[in-house]
Every structure is written in structure tokens, then in C-alpha cells.
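Entry 14. Ran structure prediction on the chain below.
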Amino acid sequence: MNPVSSELDNAVWAIVPAAGRGMRMGDHLPKQYLQVAGRTLIEHACAALLECSAIKQLVVALHPDDDIMATLELAGDTRVAMIEGGAERADSVLAGLEYLASRAGSEDWVLVHDAARPCLDGSSVEQMLQQLGRHGVGGLLARPVTDTVKRASISCEVEETIAREQLWLAQTPQMFRYGLLLEALRMARADAAAVTDESSALERMGHKPVVLPGPVSNIKVTYPQDLELAAWYLSNRSKT
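Output, C-alpha cells:
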């Protein structure tokens, strides 16, 4: 396990929302249970989090009809808790936060990571803990946009070119103070606001999360071809 960072000022928890069905993959299985490099996506995604000794518990939010997670070796880890998630990502993360209510303090840290990001490495987790461990709000891993960005119409005709300077592609984990994230997601639900990640919920409240450059290998598996790329990253990591 990676050592606890000396930069941390409070306890650390983790949540993996995994209640989605992943229909864009065109498979009969929810995508988090597809196999790559000998393990399911969710097992890979959780591995880097569980390597970190600073994380006291990892909460996995599942679809109410999920009957696969309990069969995985991951489910037997004493630091892993399984709960019922919600219809949207934000609902599942909020369910995880509510589960931790009797355990986590307001100033504790929560890392939220996608079940479909199997290539996260432990060093990236440690980097977040070291660089954000005393920040008032928190932040996220992200990649700077390097390609020219076009805005297109519904008929796929270019409407404008958008300057790519200062644009980032958000990744996970996203790491925030427990109390702030709980308040932000409760407020988003009350306002019926669509938030696609934890950072956007904090941004609605006027907070300014920190962006940390994430590795190019930390891809999100969305389409079938992404599995091949994930397998390549994972197999090449094992050779180093």
C-alpha cells in the first residue's frame, strides 16, 4: 500500500458510483463488469484506491438489480462497502455520502472515481493527496485540451472554432471536502440541476476546484474500442 501522505489534514474516504448500465458498449453486461487484462473494469478502477492506506473505506454504489459485484473478490475486501445507488451519477455519489454520514467528518476528504476508468495508477492518487491535502475545497485530475475544438450544429456543420487555451478534459478521481460535497449535491438535487461530475456541483456554489494534470492513460471506457486501449495501457504498465 502507498503510505499515508504527510500533507493530509483529515481522514480520506472513496466512492465509486457503479449503478449505470453502460448501454453504449452494446454488451449484455453493465460495462463495469467487462473484462480487460484479466479483471473487470471496476476491479481495476478500485485497485489504485485500495492501494492507498490513507483511504479508510471505499463505498461502491450499485444498481438495485446488481447480482455480479457480490461474486467478485473485491467484494470481500474489508474496506469495501456496497450500497444501492441511484438513477444518475450524482444520485449514486450522494447515496455514498449519506452512507458515510455517521463516519466522516465535515472536513474529511472524499475521492470519487469512475468505475469505467480502469487505468488509474496509485501514484496519481498519492499525487492528489499530497497536492490537495490541505486545500480548503479540493480538485480533480484533468487533461489539457490539445486539439482544435469545433462547435457543430445538430446537422454536424461547424458553427465556430473555440479557443482551446485554458480548456481541460475532466477525469477522476475528484477529491473534495466531505461537508462541501454533501451540501453541493443536496443543493443540486433540490434545484433539479443536472451535474455531470462532482466539480460542477461545487462550481454551482461558487467554489473553484483545483485542476491537477492527470495521466493520458487514465481513460474512461465508453465504447468497445476503448477496451483495447485500456488493455494496452494495463499490459504495458505491468511490464515496467
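The CA atoms of residues 142 and 171 lie 5 Å apart. Will compare against last week's run tomorrow.
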